[in-house]
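Need tokens for this chain, all 136 residues.
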Amino acid sequence: MKLILKEVKPWDFIIISALILLSFVPLFAFSVQKINESEITGKIAIVKIDSEEVDRFDIDSIDHLKKTYHPSKGKYNIIEIKKGKIRVKEDNSPDQIAVRTGWISEKGQSSICLPHKLVIEIISGKNDDNKGYHIY
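Here are the structure tokens for all 136 residues:
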């Protein structure tokens, strides 16, 4: 132990202490961001077919809703909204990836059915002209 203390200089303690304190800066920054984000209430689910928005729902204010979309002849998607979450309940695509994705409820999550070109995306409920694109 004494051998280790002989090798360590006083500036080493200062540098290591400063680095440990600096390691907490991202925690502080993200906490502030999370607090500011929680002040924005509401989540909007955007339904797009072939990159064009077809519907927009405030999922926090809907108790229960089912809606069927027909992206093209012979194809269908049934979406379901329940108390702040949304999912593709049923579709006739071969892989069923959107159905297997299940419920999504957080901002930034999405459910995608590629064969039908259907995308469900959750964005912030801000009242600014939010199109779902975020630049940081």
